[in-house]
Amino acid sequence: MQSAPQEALGHKVVGVGSCGLDYLAQVARFPQPDDKLRTENLQTQGGGNCANALTAAARLGLKPVLISKIGGDAIGDGIISELENDGVSTEFVLRAKGHPSPFTYIIVDREGGTRTCIHTPAAPLEVDDVSPSLIEGALHGAALVYFDGRLAEAALQVAKAATAAGIPVLVEAERLRPGLNELLAHADYVVTSAKFPQAWTGEASLGDALLSTFQRLPHIRWMATTLGSRGSVFLGQAEALQNGDSIPTIRLDDVLDQLSEQMRESKADLHDEPPACTTASGVDIREGQSAAAEGAIRLQWRRDESTLPEVRQKADAAAAAASISNADSRRASEYNRTGSMEECSGDLPIARVIAASAAVLPKDAIVDTTGAGDAFIGTLLYAICHGMPPEKSLRLAAVVAAKKCTTVGARGGLPQRSSLSDMLFL
């Protein structure tokens, strides 16, 4: 993938965002209202999007530094200890005396293959908490800064400092959050969930939502979107060719359909390929496939203006629903998308499009998807710092995410670099 500037290239990455404790209860099926179920497995381990992603990056060989805030309690002591043991520096994790640390109840549904999270936040990271000296110390020598979209007001101060220092910024857009729009305005790289683009833009199709999102990001180099079992999509800037008129023009939805068909047609018997890694229980995980649009293409989008009210209505409804789920309905307007819908109609200047499949492993080997997206992002942090090409980066990230899914919790299945095939990195 496009790498950080050569003068900044290194192993240090800074993450700003959530960390906490996860209580994971695995049950046979998700409970009905007023149900009583017994757990099949109960675990307690560290959590939080940012902390999970940095743990994945640390196990691959980076030197992550976390900026966050937790309580001054025994739970917080355990959070710090677990991160430090994994090689994540907590020098800039603040402790709020008299406040509890954040925690999340997670119900892992074995029958349905889902996980449901109920989060209890702690004291927020305030703007005054991230002093100039803290920011300077954390960013010194960093190759990349990652934001998980939480703690937005304080995170924005770090993002501004990183931009001023020429340090690339990666922002996670998992779901609508207050202040996320401002963070995205500083992003060189963005990783979105499958649901975010359509919620943010109100677009009905995935391709139109991806394109609409991409066009609203003023400094974007590339955007990756995770699609769960369907793999991932990469959309990046490409240099314009001298003869721009010869570049084909096509809708992004059509490109994605073509790439998916290419992967289906060229699919070899991946079960005969050497495994990319093997789990503790002996399950082999194999690298998936990727397909790229041939050369640079011009992505086309012609809006039917009669649909504009419906698109806006969907985006507004998604923002309202997100504010309610966060018990924050009074700030619903802050969850809304940025930019006007009219500005996003037309052609995107030259772009690169790549699709990648998920890694290959038996379906019954998938135990828990909690933290799969964090594992994916942690791997992309590694890929950026090492200048890996996007096709290789997406396949490596899929393998790391798949390995994570073979155990309960966000971190237990994250692989060490030494446990992965060297072919993944060549």
TrEMBL record:
Q: Which residues form the Carbohydrate kinase PfkB domain?
A: 12-236, 361-416
Pfam families in the cross-refs: PfkB (PF00294)
Q: Which Gene3D superfamilies match?
A: 3.40.1190.20
State the UniProt keywords alphabetically.
Answer: Kinase, Transferase
Q: Which domain of life is it from?
A: Eukaryota
The identity of this protein, by name, is: Carbohydrate kinase PfkB domain-containing protein
Species assigned in the record: Coccomyxa subellipsoidea
